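User: Could you check the structure of this?
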Amino acid sequence: MRRRHDRPLGRLLSIALLSVGLFGCNSGAGDVRPWTRDDHDPPNPGEGQGQGGKVAARPVASDETDPGLIELAWQRNCATCHGRAGRGDGPQGPMVRAPDLTDAAWQDRVTDAQMADTIRKGKNKMPAFDLPQPVIEGLVKRVRTNRAR
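Assistant: Sure, the predicted structure tokens are below.
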């Protein structure tokens, strides 16, 4: 003969087993892989690009690099981590701990040459970007322009 209190206990055990089955098999933090350059959003095919999704420089009449090209390079290569204004608030920024490039203290510590070198060669979790020198110089100017006051 079944006891009356066995039924709620059985129901409770069933719920517990179901919960362990559904939520206990969650993958842990050990399954997170390191960030790589391939984690960037793929560029739209055929839009002013060279090989490998890089932004290709186009000839400009003056000595200045086209500001639209600099902005395109920023959006394609930098904004994913550094955000639109360079504050480190892009979609991937928290994951890679992207620095706030507008921070006055950071800008005081870093020279233009160091910034250009980091863009060209990469540093920590930031990958290297094979961009033309005028585009790299334009990106450095863009970062300096967004300095926090």
